[in-house]
């Protein structure tokens, strides 16, 4: 494995979540301002950590520099990098840039995957049934690719705001009962970045909350698609939007996209982007919607933030149709994490917390 080159102000790393331009001095400085997990009560709070407690980056792979860039490429701000705690548990992922507010019911299958103890938003997800959530494997695993206990997570649905709008009668929250990660998920290469979470009890179907349908064929070059997520509305902003945002993107040529990423892309991936919206497109795990709003992809990783001509990379859902169907029927083949004594305690904690709200 080659170390990432240092070119004065830039260091290029392939992280376990995304390919980002990382200034070398950021990793070496003694204090770095990091975001909290997304929570409205903490949204404006920055936390300064000493260098020895900086959340570790995921395993680096051979350095990749998009072919049409130069050493003057402005790196993505550090606050938009994915972060993990000392144990490898996910803290925060990049968010949408260049989006517009979504309307209630516009993305009826969109959900927020959250941590139970704090209700902090971790990743996006998509309802495939009223009990199953499609998301990215990196959202529910540590930097080694090992699944986190399912009981650490809950799913919020049918609300545009984080946390849910006070008094909103439509919002629904469910604890996660089990998580199935694709058996060939590779945290180093981000291959097979797909997982399905099963909630403890079915969501209630409404006019603004119901499962998404999947495309019958993979989208092709030039197809117009959309996606949504909770996040910043401007690339230079450091403030998270508590309201769901949406953007439109266009499917890119896979061969050209793969070349930009050093030909590391594999079967089961597809690329999409748009000027000013070609990276940081949305919460990891959220759906890429094409062909009349059908689920075609899962937000996986990208390069930089709104870097021209460098699209984002998504999981191609059609490539995993057989695996998805198996997981929906009986848990399917994969690394599955489900119930235990600890899970029971955390579910009880979730019930008590919600009864006392």
Automatic annotation (TrEMBL):
InterPro entries: Peptidase_S1, Peptidase_S1_PA, Peptidase_S1_PA_chymotrypsin, Peptidase_S1A, Trypsin_dom, TRYPSIN_HIS, TRYPSIN_SER. GO terms for molecular function: serine-type endopeptidase activity. PROSITE patterns: TRYPSIN_DOM (PS50240), TRYPSIN_HIS (PS00134), TRYPSIN_SER (PS00135). One of its GO terms (biological process) is proteolysis. It comes from the Eukaryota. Keywords: Digestion, Disulfide bond, Hydrolase, Protease, Serine protease, Signal. The keyword RNA-binding does not apply. SUPFAM superfamilies: Trypsin-like serine proteases (SSF50494). The keyword Protease applies. Residues 96-329 form the Peptidase S1 domain. Pfam families: Trypsin. Residues 1-28 form the signal peptide. Belongs to the peptidase S1 family. CLIP subfamily. PANTHER family: PEPTIDASE S1 DOMAIN-CONTAINING PROTEIN, POLYSERASE-RELATED. This is Peptidase S1 domain-containing protein. It comes from Anopheles dirus.
